[in-house]
Amino acid sequence: xxxPPIVQHPLYSVPLPAGHxxxxxxxxxxxxxxxxxxxxxxxxxxxxxPAEPEVLALAHAPAWVEAVLAGQLAPAAERRLGLPVTxxxxxxxRAATGGTILAARLALEHGLACNTxxxxxxxxxxxxxxxxxxxxxxxxxxxxIAEGRVGRxxxxxxxxxxxxxxxxxxxxxxxxxxxxxxxxxNYPARKQASSLDVALDPGTGDxxxxxxxxxxxxxxxxxxxxxxxxxxxGVDPHRADRLGRLALTDRGLAERDRxxxxxxxxxxxxxxTVIGGGYDEDLAALAGRHALLFEVAADLTRRxxxxxxxxxxxxx
Length: 316
Ligand SMILES: [Zn+2]
Description:
With 316 residues, this protein is α/β, with parallel strands linked by helices.
C-alpha cells in the first residue's frame, strides 16, 4: 500500500459567524489540497460515524455532552469554548471525535492512520475550552482501553499549546502516558500536569526543537512501551502562526513529523495522527502546513517496514 488510511468527513468544516477567528475553513482546504496532491482519494478515504453520547461520556461529564448535543450552553461555558454551539457544530464535534476513534482502529490494523481533524486538547471533562468541544484523543484512548484493544497508550502532543484538558482527563489513568511539548508563555495561562511536560522558551527554532525531540522520543517509547501512540501534530509552533510563539519553519515541522513517525515505526508502535492547532489567516498557507504531515506519512508508507521492530521480532 502506497498511502496511509486517511479519515475525513465533509462535516469537519461547518459555517461559523462571519469574521470568527477560528479558521474553520482549514479542514476543507486541507482535504482539497491532499486530494490535489494525490494523497487522498476514495481508495484510502475513511468516513467516520458520529461518536455516540455514551462513548463521549468516557471522557466527559454526561451533563456537558447533553448540553452540547442539545445546543444549550450557559453563556460562561460558551465564552470558555470560544465557539457558538449550533447543531452543525455539535455534529462536527461528534464527527471529529468519531474520526480520531476510527484513525486509532485503522492505525492498529495498518500501523499508521491520519485524521484530517482532531486534537481538541483543551476540552476538559466538565466542559470545552479554547475552540475544543470534545477531547477526541482522550475519548479514543479510553474507548480502546475499555474495549481491550490496547493495554497502554502514549499521547504525544506537539501542538504549541499545552494539552491541558487531555492531561486533566487522563490524570490518574496509569495505562495512558500524556506528553506535552509546548511554549511556556502561551495559552492556557494555568497549566495542568501531564505525565511529562516540556515547556519551551518563546522563539525556540528548528534546531533546538528537533534536538530535544530526538533525545526524548526513543527513551520515551522504551519506558512507556505503548501499544498505540496518538500524535497531535499541531502546526502552531510555526514562526508565522498567529497564536504560537515558537519559530519553527515548514521544513522544521516536516522534520518533526518524520522524526515522530519514523521513531514510532522503528519501535514497532502504531500511530494515529490528529492535526491539532494552526492559526493563520492565509488558509492556503495553513492547509499547506497541515499537509506536511500527510506528505511525510505517505512517504513513510511507501517504504518497506523495518524488520527489526518489537512487533516483528517478539522474542528478540
Ligand atoms: Zn494549539
